[in-house]
């Protein structure tokens, strides 16, 4: 059972004064919930296809509740706080931020691309520009419903480089959550094909066991 299910908070996406996990007055994650959340080391082991992936939090407990509401329940305003936790994780050197593409039908349904919200927040805090280098060609079932092997097949050949796109030396792929790295790996391959020599990932959360991937 998720923490939010157990506590049944009275929550509104328009109320920035309530913790997304327990409904306490304060930040998007209150001090108590942050205290029950595990942070990642600044550098996390790299999934296939990436040179590194940088992670702010372990994807469980209050963090999982916040991500779910940010991605699925319209809590867009939390992206500012989330990106502030992500930005310090980056090492020096990246020259451009690239959002993991969301299919336009899914973006219409949600009202925004959550990865783009985070990328824009990181850009404001670091001065690293964002560039729209990639697109998603078709919608696919959510990764969370699939096994690791199925996830790799699910995202195969669903992304493409935009016409005329050229990548800089070091590119940062930004998303909300990463598990197996299948999605980021597919995007990294395309970015290498248009000029990038180093591709790293930056996400708000990553589950230690690699069970769920949101964002697609």
Structure explained in plain terms:
This protein is of the alpha/beta class. The protein has one domain (38-206): 3-Layer(aba) Sandwich (Rossmann fold), CATH 3.40.50. It is built from eight helices and six strands. The strands form two sheets. The protein has a four-stranded parallel beta sheet. Strand 5 (170-177), helix 8 and strand 6 (198-206) form a beta-alpha-beta unit. Helix 4 packs across helix 6 (114-126). The longest helix is centred in the middle third of the chain and has 13 residues, at 114-126. It starts with a helix and ends in a 10-residue tail after the last strand. Mean pLDDT is 80; it is low at 1-13 and 210-216.
What is this structure, in a nutshell?
This protein is an alpha/beta fold and about 220 residues long. It contains 8 helices and 6 strands, in the order ααβααβααβαββαβ.
- List the secondary-structure elements in sequence, H or E: HHEHHEHHEHEEHE
The first-level CATH class is given as Alpha Beta
C-alpha-based Rg, rounded:
16 Å
Overall number of strands = 6
- Uncertain segments: 1-13, 210-216
Name given to the CATH architecture:
3-Layer(aba) Sandwich
Alpha-beta classification: alpha/beta
Number of domains: 1
How many individual helices? 8
* Biggest β-sheet description: 4 strands, parallel
Oligomeric composition of the shown chains: single chain
């Amino acid at each position: 059972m998720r923490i939010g299910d157990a506590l049944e908070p009275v929550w509104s996406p328009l109320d920035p004064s309530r913790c997304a996990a327990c409904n306490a007055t304060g930040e998007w994650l209150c001090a108590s919930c942050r205290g029950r959340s595990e942070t990642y080391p600044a550098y996390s082991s790299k999934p296939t296809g990436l040179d590194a992936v940088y992670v702010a939090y372990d994807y469980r407990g209050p963090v999982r509740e916040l991500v779910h509401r940010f991605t699925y329940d319209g809590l867009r305003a939390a992206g500012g706080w989330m990106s502030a936790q992500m930005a310090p994780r980056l090492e020096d050197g990246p020259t451009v931020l690239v959002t993991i593409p969301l299919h336009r039908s899914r973006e219409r349904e949600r009202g925004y691309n959550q990865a783009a919200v985070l990328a824009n927040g990181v850009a404001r805090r670091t001065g690293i520009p964002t560039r729209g280098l990639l697109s998603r060609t078709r919608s696919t079932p959510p990764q969370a419903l699939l096994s690791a092997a199925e996830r790799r097949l699910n995202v195969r050949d669903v992304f493409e480089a935009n016409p005329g796109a050229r990548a800089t030396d070091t590119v940062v792929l930004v998303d909300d959550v990463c598990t197996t790295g299948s999605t980021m790996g597919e995007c990294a391959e395309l970015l290498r094909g248009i000029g990038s020599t180093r591709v790293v990932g930056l996400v708000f959360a990553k589950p230690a066991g690699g069970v769920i991937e949101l964002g697609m």
